[in-house]
Amino acid sequence: MKQSHYAVLARRANQIMEELRQGARKPYNKVIDVSWGDPHRAGVKPLTFVRQVLAACLYPQLVNSDKLPVDVRERAQKLLGGCAGGSVGSYTATAGISEIVQRVSEFITRRDGGVPSYPENIYISPGSQWSLTNIFKVLVNSEGSRRTGVLTPAPCHYTTILSIVELGGVVFPYYLSEEQGWELQLEELHRALESAKGVCNPVALYVINPGNPSGHVQSRKSMQEVIRFVSEKRLFLLADEVYQDCVYGERSEFVSYKRVLSEMGPPLSDTVELASFHSASKGFMGECGLRGGYVELVNLDPAVLKNIYKLFSKDNCAPVLGQIALDLMTNPPQPGDPSYPLYKAETQHFRSTVVHNVKIVHQVVNSLPGFCCQPVGGGAFAFPRLHLPPKAIQKAKEVGMQPDTFYCIRLLEEAGVFITPGSYYGQQEGTHHIRFCIETPEETMEEILRRLACFHTQFMKDFS
Q1: N or C: less crowded end of the chain, CB within 10 Å?
Q2: Count of Cβ atoms closer than 10 Å to residue 186 Cβ
Q3: What is the Cβ-side half-sphere exposure of residue 156, based on CA atoms within 13 angstroms?
């Protein structure tokens, strides 16, 4: 999908919201926006512990107040102690506040069952997408005689594709198998690589696990196949793992690429170049606006690491509040801490809410004629396939839109639900999809599905 089509949807959503504020009469009283992976925008409440610590860091007088739990005040005091001048308004080191980088490293080691993580290989950034773009800058050679190619999944978030293209690189999609629950298949990687070789110099493979927007969670076996593939083809492996805390399938389990690589042993564990990404924007935290993420680098040449340091140095440092959010994500309250009972209750509520949403989305969407939704194993989105009537496809062509964009425009106008079309993310030729965030309160998701069902029934009648 052309980016302008998404812009049309976003502008129209804003116009409708303004019309409603001015008293316009419509079949709905508000627009529900689930086009982003932004839990707070969708109505999810921030975690109390996170906001309390942030409040005390911003207003240090609270550190000596009895209005906050003692562990909150102790954490804020500790974090402020790592800031120059004891203030979140000061610059930090390029890679981030050293104490926070150290604790992120310790978190990775715990997560990966003891596989060592080294602080000097970690960079905190203003969100994971920012650090991903910086790594692309190292990989993509815009001045060479042959353009640089990157293998990316389809569907894939458009921002990543745009980053590669803007740097002068070439995107070669490998299609995830929808019929197998959006599984990544080795044969498709070989096909994509062969198609790239005649056009450019392929240098990297980008994977998203859990998938965005597919919702697929990779198995160890699949990850091992990917690692052997990149080793054999001498490709750099980019692992986008920002939804690692969002796994809901009964038989799904998140395992990091770094852990799988380490467990495969030498020579693979010593030679495969890997960059893995995580963010405080996703999962239980949902702090998209604070802009805190990190990249961990594995098996990179020291000369390349120096170049990466220079790239990250250009923007001084990540926002300090984002760094603090990252610290709180990787080091939450523990049993025995005063804040732990509430933190546990809030995170369990979040998880149970999303599990509920996953189930009802699957039930309701698959009950609608013309829809087919694969089970969501993880991530933040549902990505159902839409089988549109020929008349609807023809009407979309007449107005110059992709068919799923046409569907989304009509859904927005007639039902007040703002979702994104699958053509924005890449999809197999001749297929159509929609994507919407499932990280919403239960009542919001139920309202979305009610509106979608009513609209869809009428839409299919209109174009039958």
Answers
A1: C
A2: 13
A3: 25
Confidence (pLDDT) at 158: 86
pLDDT at 442: 97
- The number of CA neighbours under 13 Å toward the Cβ of 187 is 2
Query: What does the alpha-carbon distance between residue 297 and residue 277 come to, in Å, rounded to a whole number?
Result: 9
Per-residue CA distances from 207 to 131, 204, 410 (Å): 15, 10, 33
DSSP string covering 367-385, please? HSTTEE-----BSSEE--E
Residue 401 structure tokens:
């839109």
Q: Which residues of the chain have pLDDT under 70?
A: 1-5
What confidence score (pLDDT) does residue 4 get?
61
Helix (H) or strand (E) holding 119: none
Q: Provide CB contacts within 8 A for 142, sequence distance 6+.
A: 148, 167, 168, 169
Residue 171 β-bridge partners = 150
Residue 325: CB atoms within 10 A of its CB come to 26
Report the distance separating Cα 452 and Cα 456, nearest Å: 6
Which 3 state secondary structure label does DSSP give 437? strand
CB of 402 closer than 8 Å to CB of 387: no
Q: Count how many residues are written for the chain.
A: 464
CB neighbours of 158 closer than 8 A, spacing ≥ 6? 3, 6, 424, 425, 426
Rounded CA-CA distance 255/262 in Å is 12
**3-class SS of residue 88:** coil
Is the bond preceding residue 266 a cis peptide, omega within 30 degrees? no
Q: Which residue type sits at 276?
A: S
